[in-house]
Specification:
The chain is mostly helical. 68% of the residues lie in helices and 0% in strands. The protein has three helices and no strands.
């Protein structure tokens, strides 16, 4: 994966590389702004959407990919 990404980045011109940088920065900021789920928020009466969000946040934390 790293070699494919490096090849892609090498092929970008300055404007496209700057757009990629802005997109990554925007995504990271969005992730920081999401309110983290706390243990006390997890309960048997959660909606399907709440369960999905909790599952995704737990998976991201286990992968080491977030501020959760």
């Amino acid at each position: 994966m790293k070699s494919k990404f490096r090849a892609l980045v090498r092929e970008l011109d300055a404007a496209a590389l700057e757009e990629l940088r802005r997109s990554v920065a925007q995504e990271m900021e969005g992730r920081r702004q999401r309110e983290a789920i706390k243990m006390e928020d997890i309960h048997p009466l959660m909606s399907a959407e709440e369960k999905r969000r909790a599952m995704e946040e737990i998976a991201r934390a286990l992968r080491g990919g977030g501020d959760a």
